[in-house]
Design a protein that fits this description.
Helix content: 25-40%
Number of helices: 7
Strand content: 5-15%
Mean pLDDT: 83
CATH architecture: 3-Layer(aba) Sandwich
Number of domains: 1
Oligomer: single chain
Shape: globular
CATH class: Alpha Beta
Structural class: alpha/beta
Low-confidence stretches: 161-201
CATH topology: Rossmann fold
Length: 201
């Protein structure tokens, strides 16, 4: 029932651990991450694979949740990677609605405001519930939201589009050192199970 699409190796572990800590580990359907400033096309292919697996079989009465999470990127262009994810979501909109999928998004980094706004607009355009949060919200706060559990108010922040977008700097574009967690690992990979979490990375 619980699917993830997380940016960064460390963040993917944090999200999976939080899902398990909140008692939903047995409902975690996949484990994976995309990182290393992937192209729009690579992110699209990754997202499409997850969404096709997510919408196989008969719909569940209680629906499914999709957690699109991540830390605050150092050089990954959030707007560009989200364009690939949005393309896959739009392409699979009918199947996602049929499976009663709801999505929660949390991300920060270069051009994150444009990426988050595009996600918000997509939800309205395709009739899918997509809740959007930025770096003002704790990285894992969207997990209890997605699971229908209470959330500590201290973990929440209000997403404001008016905040100036973070630019992609020359050093970042050139692959500058450092990144939030494993965002510089240069890979995009997914491991999918069937209703259970997959071990390892």
């Amino acid at each position: 029932r619980v699917w993830t699409m997380v940016a960064g190796g460390g963040a993917s572990v944090v999200y999976a651990d939080t899902i398990a800590d909140l008692g939903a580990g047995h409902e975690l359907a996949n484990y994976g991450e995309y990182s290393g400033a992937p192209s729009e096309e690579l992110t699209y292919q990754y997202a499409r694979t997850i969404l096709r697996l997510m919408t196989r079989g008969e719909p569940r009465e209680d629906g499914k949740v999709l957690i699109i999470g991540g830390g605050i990127a150092n050089f990954t262009d959030v707007k560009k990677t989200f364009k690939g994810i949005i393309r896959a979501l739009r392409e699979n909109a009918d199947a996602l609605r049929r499976h009663h999928v709801k999505a929660w998004v949390r991300r920060g980094g270069p051009n994150y405001q444009e990426g988050l706004e595009a996600m918000k607009n997509l939800g309205k355009q395709i009739g899918l519930k997509i809740e959007v949060y930025g770096p003002e919200t704790h990285i894992t706060a969207i997990v209890p939201m997605a699971l229908g559990l209470p959330v500590d108010d201290e973990l929440l922040g209000k997403y404001e589009l008016a905040t100036p977008a973070l630019p992609v700097t020359e050093a970042a574009a050139a692959g500058g050192a450092g990144g939030d967690d494993a965002e510089h690992s240069g890979v995009a990979r997914a491991r999918s199970g069937s209703g259970s979490s997959s071990p390892g990375r």
